[in-house]
Amino acid sequence: MLCLTRSILIRHVSQKKGGFQGVNSFLADSSSGNLKSFRLGFRETPVASVEQENNRLDFFKEMKLRFLNFKKHKYLEEVEHFQNLAELQSPKFMVIACVDSRVCPCNILGFEPGEAFMVRNVANLVPSFEKGPTETNAALEFAVNTLQVENIFVIGHSNCAGIQALMSMKNNSSSFVEKWVGTAEVARLRTEAQASHLSFDQQCKHCEKEAINLSLHNLLSYPWIKERVRKQLLCIHGGYYDFVNCTFQKWTLDTTETTTFSSKAFQFCRCLPSSPTSRHCLASWWLFTPL
Q1: What are phi and psi of 135, to 5 degrees?
Q2: Residues 123, 85, 227, CA angle at the centre, nearest 5°?
Q3: Are 194 and 274 in contact (CB under 8 A)?
Q4: Which residues pair with residue 98 across a beta bridge?
């Protein structure tokens, strides 16, 4: 009975000063059998309107229908494949993409279940090995050492709010977002040095690609990644999705320490920010444009 009473009160008690002290007083009195000594001094927490609640329910009904559609037309039609995935995953790709709701790699590039080990963070950043542990490099360690993926694909995108925060951040910020994107400060400094004559929006677009190149470079600061790249067991790729014009660009980091470009690669490199180190160039690229 006491546990039930505590649950009811915690759901309804006001968070005004003294509200929780009242709960403690009540619990103390109830444990001694004196339930009448507590006077209810709380107010009801405002609840969402009926219309808002119905909208939520409608969305989850839609979500249920989507799941049932997936089960009927995808899972049950490929049940053997999904049962094999339940026993073992062996993706060829690790994808590092932004959390932005408009840039889901599975929708854009058609990754199927089991094909890509996915990490999504603000501004699709890879901090350097020296920055210490984060969920991103923990996933990198698992993907490369345990799953032994063959490709790491860092995908950035247009109109990235994380990069906009990086380009406008102030010193000594307490924002979690700015502290995180601050790990790509080198990309911001390079952008300011190379594109200071451009508008802020154009600088952000420049930095979106510069940050991808920085992340590609940072990947090589991880010993287990560098070793597998050296043995040609792992390739590192960059990608950029422009959802305004529906184009996708892809390039591969050259780790052969050569400065030789194909004509197309050189042309593409000129329209991108320079790579964080001159020896890492764009070895190959392609560009998808709308039909």
Answers
A1: -65, -25
A2: 55
A3: yes
A4: 121
Say if residues 217 and 154 touch (Cβ distance below 8 Å). Answer: no
Contact 163, 180 (CB under 8 A): no
Cα–Cα distance measured from residue 195 to residue 269, given in angstroms and rounded to the nearest whole number: 15
Q: The tokens 């070793």 sit on which residue?
A: 227
pTM listed for this prediction: 0.73
- Rounded CA separation 275/135 (Å): 25
**Helix (H), strand (E), coil (C) string for the chain:** CHHHHHHHHHHHCCCCCCHHHHHHHHHHHHHCCCHHHCCCCCCCCCCCCHHHHHHHHHHHHHHHHHHHHHHHHHHHHHHHHHHHHHHCCCCCEEEEEECCCCCCHHHHHCCCCCCEEEEEEHHHCCCCHHHCCCHHHHHHHHHHHHHCCCEEEEEEECCCHHHHHHHHCCCCCCCHHHHHHHHHHHHHHHHHHHHCCCCHHHHHHHHHHHHHHHHHHHHCCCHHHHHHHHCCCCEEEEEEEECCCCEEEEEEECCCCCCCCCHHHHHHHHCCCCCCCCCCCEEEEEEECCC
Q: Treating both helix axes as pointing N-terminal to C-terminal, what angle do 185-195 and 161-168 enclose, rounded to 10 degrees?
A: 70
Q: Under 8 Å CB-to-CB from 161, ≥6 apart: which residues?
A: 100
Q: From the centroid of its chain, how far is CA 287? A: 23
Q: And the tokens for 273? A: 């920010």
- The neighbour count for residue 148, using CB atoms within 10 Å, is 13
For the record, the structure tokens of 124 come out as 């699709």
Report the alpha-carbon angle 28-33-2, nearest 5. Answer: 65
**pLDDT tens digit sequence for 253-277:** 887 653 332 323 333 333 344 443 3
Contact 283, 253 (CB under 8 A): yes
Q: What are the tens digits of pLDDT across the range 114-158?
A: 999 999 999 999 999 999 899 999 999 999 999 999 999 999 999
